[in-house]
Specification:
Number of helices: 23
Number of strands: 24
Subcellular location: Cell membrane
CATH topology of the domain at 360-673: Rossmann fold
Strand content: 15-25%
Domain ABC transporter: 7-257, 362-612
Main location: membrane
Protein name: Peptide ABC transporter ATPase
Low-confidence stretches: 332-358
Helix content: 25-40%
Keywords: ATP-binding, Cell membrane, Membrane, Nucleotide-binding, Transport
């Protein structure tokens, strides 16, 4: 059978201020009809550039195909005119982007944009016919009340709904090839499971080929037929899903697989992390591009670049495949990244590891945070978004308290209220017995030294015009702790403590990778030796290998600086690994709290059970159907009566609709708010 997509020795270049930059080099692979192929690798490996080259979207980004061919059903896309290309897009191939909000035009309704796509490729279809077809497409991808959604604007839809609408628009002309670029990265694990199940169903229904770009190998294990691994603009391995997971033939693939945090990851051991980071395309190493980070690197790897070689139907580009698959299960010691060790005597506590504490650092008592809206002089009714509703729990000194739940559950709002960045509507927050609401402005500012935050977006949380030294040293300036010379010395120690070179002091944030920027944010957060650090989704935007590096760093700092942490996340395996106890939130309510292992192994609340069941399993031998929760989280402005999860709960009864469940102990140290707990 002839392949639907056949890419032969593709090279892509971009015009930059420093001249021509080659982003993709000598990439070759093919896809059959009805096949799902996953393109995996760290950010900067060339995955998205390759996908955009197939669609010829690089033409609008100062990019060009420098060499090679892209044949779609025998037609060379690389040689088509813009007019011919327009007729091919949508009809033969379509793309689902990582950020659907950026793909939709915010000034037009969802319906009008889908209808426009349908009519552009089928002029014979009337506006009314296209409208009805668009409604059916939205219904097919699982969007409730499609007639209503057609009239709404992109900002009125949730992230999951918007991604479904993007898929509906991509399917509007029934393409043979669907390219999905990180379609689930920004989504909760429950919505991610729904989208992946939808893609599998659509592939079967339309006999459609899907090229899925992801850095999550758990997703690849669940959905792919074959996997292609890219590194620094080149393909380094191609294999079937079962072959790749059973025995990788490239050290980079092996490193990615070992970096995955799973339900089976030993919480007593450090996570494996590939040292260093992916090189800049403007400064690529000679020989094998992976050799500076490779534990198997030899002199030949430094001198000479390996070509893709066929080994029993699979391919890899490595000089040392025989050594890699030679029987030793342990990976050789990897080269150490410069300044990656934790070493700063002046910042370490007296004891090497603080003894666990049993008393509470924070106490939250009936805390609520409501946001009033829609008030009118003509209406006495008070409406409010109930972001946090009657939450009570404690955070013990020296522990890491994890907080999980879908977007809209109130996790981040609770974090901001905890730090008093926003005042609670009601309730009490005690820090070591002191009510933060009763403190004066000056006293509260003094207490802020002990409460710091690590943000999800390490670039958006800093001023890009400031040098790294000024960013990390800002807490010293605000609290007047040090003079200029002392500040520079302290910042240098902090940089070394988080695994960065002190020479980074005079550089700017844009000169660093995402993982390095997050290390800068961590250095700023620990500058004043706080007692408590709130980490709000600190690794969700990072690649799996970088996630492992940052998690290991946080674990080291927690022990060395005697920190108490609150770790908010939707990557449930990561939260399980770092946390001593975990709280689960749903629609502003705390529905379960338990020790980490107990919560994941024996969840008591049906929502927690559904969250755990939605986690992708990075092992093709343990394949299962996606246990996706039906529907989306309701609006916090109008929550359901009784148990707020009842509208999506498979075990809901009539009692759940009229009576709110009490938060009660269901096991030793295990609490849940459910009329009929799982255990």
């Amino acid at each position: 059978m002839n392949p639907l997509l056949d890419i032969e020795r593709l090279s892509v270049e971009f015009d930059t201020g420093r001249g021509r930059l080659q982003a993709v080099s000598d990439v070759s692979f093919s896809m059959k009809a009805g096949e799902i192929v996953c393109l995996v690798g760290e950010s900067g490996s060339g995955k998205t550039v390759t996908s955009k080259a197939i669609m010829r979207l690089i033409d609008d980004e100062n990019g060009s195909i420098a060499a090679g061919a892209i044949k779609l059903d025998g037609v060379d896309v690389a040689g088509l005119s813009r007019h011919a290309l327009r007729s091919l897009r949508g009809k033969k191939m379509a793309m689902v982007f990582q950020e659907p909000m950026a793909a939709f035009d915010p000034v037009f309704t969802i319906g009008s944009q889908i209808v426009e796509t349908i009519r552009r490729h089928n002029r014979k279809e009337t506006s009314s016919q296209a409208w009805h077809r668009a409604v059916e497409l939205l219904r097919r991808v699982g969007i409730p009340e499609p007639e209503l959604r057609m009239k709404q604007y992109p900002n009125e839809l949730s992230g999951g709904m918007l991604q479904r609408a993007m898929i509906a628009m991509a399917l509007s002309c029934e393409p043979e090839l669907l390219i999905a670029d990180e379609p689930t990265t920004a989504l909760d694990v429950t919505i991610q499971a729904q989208i992946l199940q939808l893609l599998q169903d659509l592939k079967t229904e339309y006999n459609m080929s899907i090229l899925l770009i992801t850095h999550d190998l758990g997703i690849a294990a669940e959905i792919a037929d074959r996997i292609i691994v890219m590194y620094a603009g080149q393909v380094v391995e191609k294999a079937s899903k079962s072959e790749l997971f059973e025995q990788p033939h490239h050290p980079y693939t092996q490193g990615l697989l070992r970096s995955i945090t799973t339900m089976d990851s030993d919480r007593a051991k450090r996570l494996y992390a590939i040292p260093g980071s992916i090189p800049s395309l403007a400064d690529l190493p000679g020989g094998c591009r992976f050799h500076p980070r490779c534990p198997y690197a030899s002199e030949q790897c430094v001198r000479e670049a390996p070509a893709l070689q066929d080994r029993g139907g699979r391919q890899s580009a490595c000089w040392n495949v025989e050594q890699l698959i030679g029987g030793d299960s342990d990976i050789p010691a990897a080269p150490t990244a410069p300044h990656a060790e934790i070493a700063s005597a002046s910042l370490q506590p007296a004891a090497e590891q603080a003894k666990p504490h049993t008393d509470s650092l924070f106490e939250l008592v009936h805390v609520t945070k409501h946001y009033p809206y829609g008030r009118s002089v003509f209406s006495k009714e008070k409406k409010a978004i109930r972001a946090v509703d009657d939450v009570s729990f404690s955070i013990r000194k020296g522990e890491t308290f994890g907080l999980v739940g879908e977007s809209g559950s109130g996790k981040s709002t609770l974090g901001r209220v905890l730090l008093h960045l926003e005042k609670p509507t009601s309730g009490t927050i005690l820090l070591e017995g002191r009510d933060l609401a009763l403190l004066s402005g000056a006293r509260l500012r003094e207490e802020r030294k002990h409460m710091q935050m690590i943000f999800q977006d390490p670039y958006g949380s800093v001023d890009p015009r400031w040098k790294v030294g000024d960013i990390i040293g800002e807490p010293f300036s605000v609290h007047g702790a040090l003079n200029a010379r002392e500040k520079r010395e302290a910042v240098g120690e902090l940089l070394q403590l988080v695994g960065l070179n002190p020479a980074a002091y005079d550089r700017y944030p844009h000169e660093f990778s995402g993982g390095q920027r997050q290390r800068i944010g961590i250095a700023r957060a620990i500058a004043l030796r706080p007692k408590f650090v709130l980490a709000d989704e600190p690794v969700s935007a990072l690649d799996v290998s970088v996630q492992a590096q940052i998690v290991n760093l946080l674990q080291d700092l927690r022990q060395q600086l005697d920190l108490t942490l609150m770790f908010i996340g939707h990557g449930l395996n990561i939260v399980r690994y770092v946390s001593d106890r975990i709280g689960v939130m749903y629609l502003g309510k705390l529905v379960e709290i338990a020790p980490s292992e107990q919560l994941f192994r024996h969840p008591a609340h049906h929502y927690t059970k559904a969250l755990v069941s939605s986690i992708p399993v990075p092992d093709p031998r343990r394949q299962r159907t996606f246990a996706a929760i039906e529907g989306e989280i309701p609006s916090p402005a109008s929550p359901p009566s009784g148990c707020r999860f009842r509208t999506r709960c498979p075990a809901a009864t009539a009692r759940c609709a009229i009576e709110q469940p009490l938060f009660k102990e269901v096991g030793h140290g295990h609490y849940a708010a459910c009329h009929d707990p799982v255990i």
